[in-house]
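Support request, please re-run this one:
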Amino acid sequence: MTERDDSAVPSVLTGGAVGAIRRTSAVDTVRVRISLAVDLGLLAPGERLPNPRETAAALGVGEITVRRAFSSLEREGVVRRAPGRTGGTFVSDEPRRGTVAEVTAYHEDSERVHRLIEERTVLETGLAHLAAQRATPEALAAMDSCTAEMDEAGTWAEFHAADERFHFTLANCAGTTAALGMYRRVVKELYSYFLPYPMDYLRKSNDEHKHIRAALGARDASLAADLACAHVTELHRSMYVGLAGHGHGQRDGRGGPRGTEAGE
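Re-run finished. Output below.
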């Protein structure tokens, strides 16, 4: 077996790599992320999706883009829409699977996603170590607010917004401008591959946020770094690049995707 030469792979940190999803339209990226979540069992038949405004904010696109994507997914049999005050967009009771051809772009980017996770792991581990030494009471309070919001979140879209603020607050505490810039670029790229997750599963991942926050408050730099490292490394299994090998459409007994233990 020939060992992979990572030195030949352009680093995301230097901006040398271009993912296949860059060739995919904004509408199609939404279609792919919803349909992949359905295929992998992260979104259950009959489950209600967040409204277009919330979905747009979580997926980093415009609201019109989401509406167009929902219309396309409805025609493809992945979702159904119901009018009225109690209506909305729902995963079809018997959703069609494998209908979005553009999903191939995400599979083509699997190695890129793994590399992004590795780069984020290195950065966030170091940032957490520094943050434990430099976090102010105000920053710790802001992280407490984020974890409380994640506990109360009603949708994966609401959870995502608080999750993002938590991690950027932690990174800001480190006080390293150059590293923070690299971290923001990596996280932005990585977030473009995230899929919706079951809420029970996401709330369990929030327990890890609380442990990280506790280590920061205790000024335990080694523990904070170890916890941040484990939290991010788990993305190798919990993102679609890991879930695809664990049997599509299955959840474990805790409400999360089978074969994973940590969330965003």
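The radius of gyration is 19 Å. Residues 21 and 29 are 7 Å apart (CA to CA).
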